[in-house]
Every structure is written in C-alpha cells, then in structure tokens.
C-alpha cells in the first residue's frame, strides 16, 4: 500500500537558522520559505536526491506544531509522509484494522495540493504518519 | 554535502508487531529481524521504493535505544541517516563550524558495514542525524 517516503518533516524553533544550516553546513538544496496559512505553518523544502525534508515553523496562533515546539524547544522530527495511490482505500483498510485517523477522518488538501490524512501516533509506534495521495 | 536520505530509524517497543504492521497493514516490503550485537539493536529493514525504514529494538543491556524507549514507551522516530561521499571531510567541516559529533568523534562501522557518525541533536534542531559514507 505505502509507496515512496514523500518527506520527513522537522519542526524548528528558528526557520532562518535551520534553512541556513541545511544549505551551508549540510550543503543541501534549500528552497525559499513558503507560508501555508491553511496549515498554520511556514515551510522550507529541502530537496535531497531521493526525497524531501520539510522544515516547519508555526504560522498563526493555532499552528498545529506550536504544542510540539513547546514540548521540544530545540525542535525535532514531527512526522513522516508516505505516498499512497488511493487515500480513501488506505484509510478504510487501516480503520477496519483499528487504526485511528486524526481529525474528522476525511482527507484534506495538504501543503502540496494533494489529499492527505494523518494517522494516530499511538497506533504507529509513536510516529505521526501522514498519507498523501499522489 | 549530504546526499540521499539512506533511512529513517524508528525505535519500537514490540518488533514483531511493528514489522507485521508495516507488512500487513501498510503493505510494505519487510525483511527478517537481524541482530546487530555490535550496535545493541535488532533491526528490521523496510524497503520503500526510494529509501528505507529501519525498525530498531534493543539488544542487550547496553542498547543505545534503551533510554529512548524508556522516555518514549510507544516508540518514536529515533534518527535519520544522510549519505555522504567523504565522512571525514563532512565531520571536519561540521566540527569547524561548531557542531558536536557523538562518541569519540571517529567513524564506526555501522549496521550496513559502512563508516558512520552521529551528530548531536541539540546542534541539529533536536534531530539525531547519522551520516553514512557510501
């Protein structure tokens, strides 16, 4: 069911410093910051040869990563995103096996303009998993 | 400097259950458990089309992931591994910029038989980063 690892998302306390570190110290290809008001984050995409890293910084008062950064002031790996062909079929299979889907269980349009869902970390070894239909 | 994302490593409290979940619920290609006594872990490799997930479970009393699982009993994303061409050049550049390398600072032979180093999470947005020379 799951295909490529689309990205690993890292919540960071200082987006400019983190982007500069990936660009200059780690020598990666780093894009410009992009505000995603619908998702409450500003994102910097880092292109690796086989996948992406996404740096996330809170945008607005209701940012979904605000609490994460309060608990992890240095930042940390926030979630990983697997690609799926059919997000509704994936959701229904996982739900039928007892896994919990976050929110109202309906896919939303994610930061890449494609349908996404998040799975409950407690049901997946403490890892927040995003599924993205590609 | 950094190349491909070689793998994302997930520490899990129940290796058999986690491997079965990735194989059956998530439909991924999951290998057999492999004991790595030199690294204090039993590993299950999950092959995705573009990278790997490594499930880690403690092996022996001095396992480096024992403390992580005590703090995160459900498990969690433990580290991510970036490939580099020249691990000593990468280390020396990062050290000269103030980043800390874990252990004695010398590469060890990692679970894939290649030289690896770990970078201090506090210097990299709370993320434990492994560098592997390929």
UniProtKB/TrEMBL annotation, chains A, B:
Q: Could you cite one Gene Ontology molecular function of this protein?
A: metal ion binding
Family to which this protein belongs: Belongs to the methylmalonyl-CoA epimerase family.
Reaction(s) catalysed by this chain's protein: (R)-methylmalonyl-CoA = (S)-methylmalonyl-CoA
- Top enzyme class: isomerase
GO annotation, biological process: L-methylmalonyl-CoA metabolic process
| Annotated InterPro entries | Glyas_Bleomycin-R_OHBP_Dase (IPR029068), MeMalonyl-CoA_epimerase (IPR017515), MMCE/EMCE_epimerase (IPR051785), VOC_core (IPR037523)
Listed EC numbers: 5.1.99.1
Please identify the protein, giving its name as recorded.
Answer: methylmalonyl-CoA epimerase
Q: Which residues form a coiled coil?
A: none
Q: Which domain of life is it from?
A: Bacteria
Q: Where is the VOC domain?
A: 4-134
A Pfam family of this chain: Glyoxalase_4
Q: What is the organism of origin for this protein?
A: Paracoccus versutus (Thiobacillus versutus)
What keywords tag this UniProt record? Answer: Cobalt, Isomerase, Metal-binding
């Amino acid at each position: 069911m799951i295909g490529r690892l689309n990205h690993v998302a890292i919540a960071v306390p200082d987006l400019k410093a983190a982007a500069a570190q990936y660009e200059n110290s780690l020598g990666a290809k780093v894009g410009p910051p992009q505000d995603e008001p619908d998702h409450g984050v500003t994102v910097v995409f880092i292109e690796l040869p086989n996948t992406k890293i996404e740096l996330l910084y809170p945008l607005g008062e209701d940012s979904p990563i605000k609490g994460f950064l309060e608990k992890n002031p240095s930042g940390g790996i926030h979630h990983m995103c697997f690609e799926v062909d059919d997000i509704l079929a994936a959701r229904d299979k996982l739900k039928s096996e007892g896994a919990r889907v976050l929110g109202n269980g309906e896919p939303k349009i994610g930061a890449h303009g494609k349908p996404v869902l998040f799975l409950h970390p407690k049901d997946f070894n403490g890892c927040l998993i995003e599924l993205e239909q590609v």
